[in-house]
Every structure is written in structure tokens, then in C-alpha cells.
Automatic annotation (TrEMBL):
Belongs to the short-chain dehydrogenases/reductases (SDR) family. Pfam families: adh_short (PF00106). Keywords: Oxidoreductase. It comes from the Eukaryota. The lineage of its organism: Eukaryota, Fungi, Dikarya, Basidiomycota, Agaricomycotina. SUPFAM superfamilies: NAD(P)-binding Rossmann-fold domains (SSF51735). GO terms for molecular function: oxidoreductase activity. The keyword Oxidoreductase applies. This is NAD(P)-binding protein.
Amino acid sequence: MASTAAATIKRVALITGASQGISKCIAQRLASDGLRVALNDIAAKRDQLQDVAAQIRTSGGEAIVMTADVSREDDVKAMTTQVVQEAGGLDVMVANAGILGPFKPLLLPLCPWRHDLLYLALVFTGSHRHTSGWHHSTVVKVS
């Protein structure tokens, strides 16, 4: 039988781009499944993030809000460190911030693809710093 302390530890998910769309839905679902969620988007979308967090809390979930530009390495490092400090860990990383915006994939020059790959690398390395020693951590890249 698990100890009381172990039974009360919640898994933590960080979701980028969580102010709207698919990321918002993912955050709401993870919270309803019992995970503590850390909601991320750029500073200009702080109010939207606060609304999502309020919806999650009203439904009985736990949510924290943090703004960061995930295309900037220092922001990603600070964000993942903040998640671990405020939420108690990092078990699931959902990278879904829309860096490129709407586009036609076959008509897109190579440079924006490189930018999106750089974003993925930043998010992965930022989250990896905190999940590398854990047995059951997950990184999901959606956008």
C-alpha cells in the first residue's frame, strides 16, 4: 500500500500556448484528469491565461500561470525552473505554442521551419533539465 505522502503527490504538466485553442483544451483535460497544470503563453496573453486558470480552479483543478516567450532560451529555462519550484515538479511537457502561425507547409521557406525546430529544441532542453532523472516523464510536441 502506498504511503499517504506518495498518494497525495500530484503529477505536474506544463502546457505552452495555453491561453486558447488546442493547448487550452489539453490543459483543461489534464486538470480534469487530476494533474496540476502550469499554463504558459506570452505576456500579452496573461489575462487569457488567468481566465483559463480560473475555469480550471472552478472545476476543482489546480493551475498556475506563467508568462514566457518560448522562443527565448532564458525564458524557457526560467519557466521550467519556476514550474518545479511552484508546482513541485515537472512530469508532462506539452509544447504547443504557435510560433509560425497559419501557413501552407509546401510553400513555406526553410527559415521558418528552422525557427520552429529551434523552439522545439529550447523547450525540450528546458524541460529535460528537470525531467532527466525521473522515470515517467513525457514531452509532447504538438504545433
